[in-house]
Amino acid sequence: MEKEKTVSSDTADGKHHEIKLKKTGAATATVELTTWQPGQNPEKDKGSKQTFNVRDIKAADDGSSLVCKGPLRVTVTVTIQQPEQDQMPVVKVKHPLGTNEYPVTETDETELKAFIKSCGFPKA
Question: Does 124 fall in a domain?
Answer without folding.
Answer: no
